[in-house]
Request: fold
Amino acid sequence: MQRSVFPDDDGLRELLASAAGLAVLLWLTDFALEAAVPLIALFGTVALHDRLDARYDLPAGTKWIAYGASVVVVGSYFAVRGAAVAGVALAGGGAWFVLDGTATVREGAGREPHEYAAGLDDAGRGEAMLRIQVLGSVHEELRASDEPRTPDEVADALGLAEERAGSALNYLETRGRVERVDGDRYRAIEPRWGTLQPVASVARWLPRRLLRPFRLLLG
Reply:
């Protein structure tokens, strides 16, 4: 039986096809090869990561390490080519992504995700959307209620299994969206800033997010 000249690995086939497409684009246009170096670095690094991830199931965070490393290379390239300020800024941003990815790998190795969010990568899009919808429905049910509700009461009101409602409530509690009172009863935490809450949340979240890799790696 004659074997195909194309590799059996779908990821490698896609990688070779994309590389061939880029080569044809450079050949058909006046796009200079030197100007294509950043594109090749970014594309090649991310494509290589995706191929390795598909084969070896790399830990969460490695993609950001690969992406950040490629951005550092691109920033260094721009700095050498004369755009020192832009290049250094770009390389600095890439270094942050490397640190953040490294922190994510380290954090993931020592902490299991909450049961409600566990297994989403393997659950499929339908199950992921259902869990998100349940979270929203449970939170709105508590906001509309004048009194704290038990998981059983929330489950009956929304037509959910008590186990799913309880898991959703517990997850919302870990995210600071609801609080537990009187043992096993929950109530929604009302936004402190009213309609400006989204802006206030971003203002509080952004500094913590930027400092996250340093806190996790140095703490």
The chain is about 70% helix and 5% strand. The two ends are 59 Å apart (CA to CA). Residues 84-110 form the longest helix (27 residues). Residues 119 and 171 are 14 Å apart (CA to CA).
